[in-house]
From TrEMBL:
Its main location: cytoplasm. Gene3D superfamilies: Ribosomal RNA adenine dimethylase-like, domain 2 (1.10.8.100), Vaccinia Virus protein VP39 (3.40.50.150). It comes from the Bacteria. It comes from Liquorilactobacillus uvarum DSM 19971. SUPFAM superfamilies: S-adenosyl-L-methionine-dependent methyltransferases. Specifically dimethylates two adjacent adenosines (A1518 and A1519) in the loop of a conserved hairpin near the 3'-end of 16S rRNA in the 30S particle. May play a critical role in biogenesis of 30S subunits. The gene is rsmA. It is an enzyme of class 2 (transferase). This is Ribosomal RNA small subunit methyltransferase A. GO terms for molecular function: 16S rRNA (adenine(1518)-N(6)/adenine(1519)-N(6))-dimethyltransferase activity; 23S rRNA (adenine(2085)-N(6))-dimethyltransferase activity; RNA binding. CDD domains: AdoMet_MTases. S-adenosyl-L-methionine binds at N33, L35, G60, E81, D106, N131. SMART domains: rADc. HAMAP family: 16SrRNA_methyltr_A.
Length: 298
């Protein structure tokens, strides 16, 4: 049987055969749910706009279903897989493709700059395309943003609920520190919804394909890391007011309440408002003012 005659890895028949051949079961601890609809995988690659000008980083290739579809269009693919059991499986399923490198690596511990420098030539756009493990979706996205790497785009599958949080606007229940952390650097677009019925094993919820693309940061914080801490602090207790959360975050014994009141007045923010009602720009101004007015007493 030639490669052209082989059914795609993602087909239910091929997936089942691979699982049986290697005696595989699914590790809940690694968030393993394998997609068995080839058309949806092709739509993911379409959403990422992958072509021969792109080098693609994939996280968690599983048995290679999405990897295969990416490799058919991309210049090169670097796939990071944590599960030891899947390394020999991937060696077999992806053997026909000479533009794929599979590396056993935990993406959260990986030196991505070093890895990409080693496996990519630096002459092509770099994109991330992945079906992320549900249980560590947010940490992986934050890790990618913190690398300082210039990804052309990040196109990932995640739980629909998490996708809604990423793209949420101020004033909505889904809006929170994760929304701000991602939208501070990236434009967020939900490309399409993936029903739970196309996975093996079937998860309890539907998924979504999210496209993250870099954007120009207009409101710059004086101290970026402090800005992120302020955002998390203000969302620590969602039902509490900005006034209460800021005091708790800054330390009630150290905070100068008069300066805190002055700051909120200058920013035209009611002490009774909640964090979900502030925009990203307003949070940047808030963090900058805390530093400028020296609201924390030493």
């Amino acid at each position: 049987m030639t490669n052209n005659d082989r059914p795609d890895i993602a087909s239910p028949v091929r997936t089942r055969a691979i699982m049986e051949t290697y005696g595989l079961n699914f590790k809940k601890s690694l968030g393993q749910n394998f997609l068995t609809d080839v058309n949806i995988l092709k739509k993911i690659v379409d959403a990422a706009g992958v072509d021969e000008n792109d080098d693609v980083l994939e996280i968690g290739p599983g048995i290679g279903a999405l990897t295969e579809q990416i490799a058919k269009r991309a210049h090169n693919v670097l796939a990071l897989e944590l599960d030891d059991r899947l390394i020999p499986v991937l060696a077999e399923t992806l053997e026909p493709y000479d533009n794929i490198q599979v590396v056993k690596q935990d993406v959260l511990k990986a030196d991505l700059k070093q890895l990409l420098s080693k496996h990519f030539d630096g002459q092509h756009h770099v994109k991330v395309v992945a079906n992320l493990p549900y249980y560590i979706t947010s940490p992986i996205i934050i890790h990618l943003l913190e690398t300082g790497l210039s990804f052309d785009s990040i196109v990932v599958m995640m739980q629909k609920e998490v996708a809604e949080r990423l793209g949420a606007h101020s004033g909505t229940k889904a809006y929170g520190s994760l929304s701000i952390r991602v939208q501070y650097q990236m434009n967020v677009k939900v490309a399409f919804i993936v029903p739970k019925t196309v996975f093996v094993p079937q998860p309890k919820v539907d998924s979504a394909i999210v496209i993250l693309s870099p954007k120009e940061i207009l409101a710059l914080p004086k101290d970026e890391q402090f800005f992120f801490k302020v955002v998390k602090g203000c969302f620590q207790h969602r039902r509490k007011t900005i006034w209460n959360n800021l005091q708790s975050f800054l330390g009630k014994k150290k905070v100068n309440k008069e300066k805190l009141q002055q700051m909120l007045l200058e920013l035209d923010v009611s002490p009774k408002t909640r964090a979900e009602n502030l925009s990203i720009d307003e949070f940047v101004q808030l963090a900058n003012k805390i530093i400028e007015l020296k609201i924390i007493e030493k």
